[in-house]
Each structure stands twice: as structure tokens, then as C-alpha cells.
Design goal:
alpha/beta, Rossmann fold, 2 domains, elongated
Length: 330
């Protein structure tokens, strides 16, 4: 758990917080960012990632996806996406009356953000530790041009937001999977980790699909899906796809699962999606999955399903088709 920079800055007095008023915490990651050095009874955690909402809510913290009112101070944990990071800072500066504390790793572009912030407002001397930096900003500042604004439109007429997966174009792996799917998928289908809705749009081209559940942990992506897919057969779920379960067993699961934790490859995420899919399928159910060619999913799929084949692929991606989940998986 990474807490070094923020804890050290508070302990040494390099960063001070107001004695009263709410403190907003933007974008903390569960199990990564330790908030125990902050006054917990005054914190308002702001994140759109459902597993993080669940993590901090379970620890008694108040969570929301958007700011509510004004704050006496704020903490921003920088995300990887530069446009999203800038947007978070712009939003924070708009709703904060006191110091805005920014914390980020070098690999997340904190040095570039620090340089740009110095051109716009007063910035404290940065604290460098654990391959990152922490500094504070003094509102107000000229950050309006950093605001995220309305969703952007990409090829195909879809809308996306900065920071969501495949924000600038249709993901080529998802396109390959959609092009490979057979005409018959069954009446009840789920799109796990469905993002802003591309795969769901393609699945719903089939009239025989009576119900489609799109499960997505990123609130911003799910709101884009709400705009991109108006078909009444679609049901949207803001949830952790590895924990969500349907009301009844499914005929088919389609998924392009994530495989990164921050910047590190983590095949365990995709394997958790596979296990969740097996648990929610009928005995005759099927799984369609796209993965990067190098990811070692086949042993896990073979353990959980009676048959698995590579239905399509290229030098970058493979499409796996698995059928008949084992009783143990369900």
C-alpha cells in the first residue's frame, strides 16, 4: 500500500489541512492509497470506479461520483490519462476553498502536471519520494481549459470521455471479437466490462437476443454507454464484473476483459472475469473472449469449461470460444 508521500507531508507539516470543513479525495485506489492520516470523519471520497467505491464504503467513508458543494481542502490522486488528470484538477479547483494537494507517480506524468500547474497558480515546493511527487496548489487559478467538458464523438458516432478505455477510437480487439461472434448467441447475454457500449451495440444486432446485461465498473464509461445504446433490451449495471451475478443463469457471456493494474500487466484480472463468466452461465452456456495474444488464459479456461477453441485471431489478438462450464465453476 502506497502512502509514503501524503503521510510524510502531513507528519512533517509540509502540507497542512484546515481544522474544519469537508475534505474531498479524488480518485483514490483501494488497497493502494492509504487515507488513514487524514481526518476520516471529514472525508468525501470521489471516484467512479465501483471496486474503489466498495472498498472505501466498507471502511465507513462517504463516497460519490461527483463533488457535492464546496470543500475546505482536496486531495487529487493522479490517474494515468493526462486529459483525465487535468480535468480532475480543474474540477477540484472549482469546488475547493483551501489547498489542493496533488499526488502522482512519475510514470503517471506528475512532473509534466507540476510544470504546467506552476504556470497557472501558486505551487508549493514538491515532495519527491517513492518514484513520485506531491505538491499543493492555491486556488484560484486559470484551469478552465483543462475541464473535461461534454463527451467527445469518435468514428461510428459513439461518444466517449477522457480516461475511459478506448476513448479515442473503437478498440481493435473488441472489433475483431464483434466481427467473429456467430449469428446465434442465445436469448440472455451479458457483456462483462462492456465499457462505453461498442460490443453491446454489435451483440444487439441479433434479433434473437431478448436481454443483454452490460456490466461496467467505470461510471463515466457506463454513462457513455447509456447514450450510445438506446435499445430497450439492454440493462446497464454499474458493478464489478467479477462480483456481479445475474438474476438467472445466462446463455452467453461476451467480454474483452482488462488486464492491467495501473501500468503493470496482471493476467489475474482476466482470469477473474473468466471465472465469473463460468459461474453465471447455464450448463449449455458459452463464453466468447478476446485477449492479447501473449496472455496465458487457455489453461484457466480449459479448467472451467468442457471445450475451448481459438475461433479467430491475428498477431495481436486471439478470440477464445469456450462451451459448457464445469459444475464446479457454477
Amino acid at each position: 500500500m502506497s502512502a509514503a508521500r501524503l503521510s510524510l507531508a502531513l507528519e512533517t507539516g509540509e502540507i497542512t489541512l484546515p481544522d474544519t470543513g469537508r475534505i474531498a479525495v479524488f480518485g483514490p485506489r483501494g488497497g493502494v492509497h492509504d487515507l488513514s492520516g487524514l481526518p476520516l470523519d471529514r472525508l468525501h471520497v470521489l471516484t467512479g470506479f465501483k471496486p474503489d467505491v466498495d472498498y472505501f464504503s466498507a471502511r465507513g467513508l462517504t463516497c460519490a461520483t461527483l463533488p457535492e458543494g464546496r470543500y475546505s481542502a482536496s486531495v487529487v490522486f493522479l490517474p494515468r490519462a493526462k486529459r483525465l488528470a487535468r480535468g480532475l484538477i480543474a474540477r477540484t479547483m472549482d469546488v475547493t476553498d483551501g489547498p489542493v494537494i496533488v499526488d502522482g507517480a512519475k510514470t503517471d506524468g506528475v512532473e509534466s502536471i507540476l510544470k504546467d500547474c506552476r504556470k497557472r497558480t501558486e505551487v508549493s515546493p514538491p515532495l519527491s519520494k517513492a518514484h513520485g511527487k506531491l505538491f499543493s496548489l492555491t486556488p484560484p487559478g486559470e484551469f478552465d481549459d483543462w475541464a473535461i467538458g461534454a463527451p467527445q464523438q469518435i468514428d461510428g458516432g459513439f461518444v466517449t470521455q477522457p480516461g475511459v478505455f478506448s476513448a479515442d477510437a473503437i478498440d481493435p480487439g473488441s472489433r475483431l471479437l464483434a466481427d467473429t461472434l456467430p449469428a446465434k448467441l442465445g436469448a440472455h447475454v451479458a457483456d462483462l466490462g462492456g465499457g462505453w457500449g461498442y460490443l453491446s451495440t454489435r451483440i444487439l444486432e441479433r434479433e434473437a437476443v431478448a436481454h443483454l446485461d452490460l456490466v461496467e465498473a467505470d461510471h463515466a464509461a457506463l454513462e457513455c454507454a447509456r447514450q450510445n445504446v438506446s435499445d430497450p433490451r439492454l440493462r446497464l449495471h454499474w458493478d464489478d464484473a467479477t462480483r456481479w451475478r445475474p438474476d438467472e443463469l445466462l446463455d452467453c457471456v461476451v467480454t474483452n476483459p482488462p488486464f492491467h493494474t495501473d501500468r503493470s500487466a496482471d493476467p489475474g484480472l482476466g482470469q477473474a472475469f473468466i471465472a465469473a463468466a463460468a459461474a453465471m452461465l447455464k450448463p449449455s452456456g458459452q463464453l466468447w473472449l478476446v485477449a492479447n495474444r501473449h496472455l496465458p488464459y487457455e489453461p484457466n479456461v480449459s479448467r472451467l469449461f468442457a471445450t475451448v477453441t481459438e475461433a479467430a485471431g491475428d498477431n495481436r489478438f486471439k478470440i477464445l470460444h469456450a462451451q459448457r462450464p464445469s459444475r464446479k465453476a457454477r
